TrEMBL record:
<keyword id="KW-0813">Transport</keyword>
<keyword id="KW-0067">ATP-binding</keyword>
<dbReference type="GO" id="GO:0005524">
    <property type="term" value="F:ATP binding"/>
</dbReference>
<dbReference type="InterPro" id="IPR003593">
    <property type="entry name" value="AAA+_ATPase"/>
</dbReference>
<dbReference type="GO" id="GO:0022857">
    <property type="term" value="F:transmembrane transporter activity"/>
</dbReference>
<protein>
    <submittedName>
        <fullName>ABC transporter ATP-binding protein</fullName>
    </submittedName>
</protein>
<feature type="domain" description="ABC transporter">
    <location>
        <begin position="4"/>
        <end position="225"/>
    </location>
</feature>
<dbReference type="GO" id="GO:0016887">
    <property type="term" value="F:ATP hydrolysis activity"/>
</dbReference>
<dbReference type="InterPro" id="IPR017871">
    <property type="entry name" value="ABC_transporter-like_CS"/>
</dbReference>
<dbReference type="Pfam" id="PF00005">
    <property type="entry name" value="ABC_tran"/>
</dbReference>
<dbReference type="InterPro" id="IPR015854">
    <property type="entry name" value="ABC_transpr_LolD-like"/>
</dbReference>
<comment type="similarity">
    <text>Belongs to the ABC transporter superfamily.</text>
</comment>
<dbReference type="InterPro" id="IPR003439">
    <property type="entry name" value="ABC_transporter-like_ATP-bd"/>
</dbReference>
<keyword id="KW-0547">Nucleotide-binding</keyword>
<dbReference type="GO" id="GO:0005886">
    <property type="term" value="C:plasma membrane"/>
</dbReference>
<dbReference type="InterPro" id="IPR027417">
    <property type="entry name" value="P-loop_NTPase"/>
</dbReference>
<dbReference type="InterPro" id="IPR017911">
    <property type="entry name" value="MacB-like_ATP-bd"/>
</dbReference>
Amino acid sequence: MSVLSLNQVFYKYEGAKKNVLQGVSAEFEAGKVYTIVGKSGSGKSTMLSLIAGLDICKNGTILYRGTDLKTVDRDEYRARGIGVIFQAYNLITNATAVENIVLSMNISRSPERNKTAYAYALLEKVGIDRDTADRRVLKLSGGEQQRVGIARALSHDPDILIADEPTGNLDTETEADILHLLTSLAHAQGKCVIIVTHSKKVTSVADVILGISDGKMSLIKSQAAK
Ligand SMILES: Nc1ncnc2c1ncn2[C@@H]1O[C@H](COP(=O)(O)OP(=O)(O)OP(=O)(O)O)[C@@H](O)[C@H]1O
């Protein structure tokens, strides 16, 4: 079964004349990397915010594991079902890497456990060692900050990771490292990774490339299973 299923999704911003999305349908499965491409203003970020449960579609349905997002507790869904990775990292720069993860777990009422130990372990998993984890974020490189951003997105063990231009601020080599991390989260850990991007390098690692144009989504490329 798909982790996420979009059926004839329509969306119009308040006061706008035209629908941004005009009947978008797509299936997203566990263990795969999806990229969504399309020209500026085509509705990619709008679609991500609907998938993230930040807004609800007016017509059509978005099913998470078979349940309509209109009927689930969206705070719970945002806290546990989905992790979001931002282009600009959106970390608290004055706090250490590990503090950023613990803070995020506190805000979304994570289950009681040793949050600090859990945060160090998560950071290690994304390639941030203990010394780096104890440094303030503003002292970290862009690539290190994005690793912390990914660890934060993973802190509630979500099924789905969504990212809007996650490598947009990084050099080519660091971009390749981050893409390797994101693809291994899909292929080795079964996450459904959905990335909006303009970068050809990012689309080159995708299992499935989807395009948005004129409010509709189409399949551009689907690689054979790896
Ligand atoms: N809050 C809003 N209110 C009204 N219109 C909006 C709002 N946010 C976005 N739009 C409009 O909706 C359309 C789709 O915007 P969206 O940000 O989803 O595009 P995008 O494909 O992500 O673009 P980009 O690649 O430039 O980030 C655009 O025409 C945009 O101007």
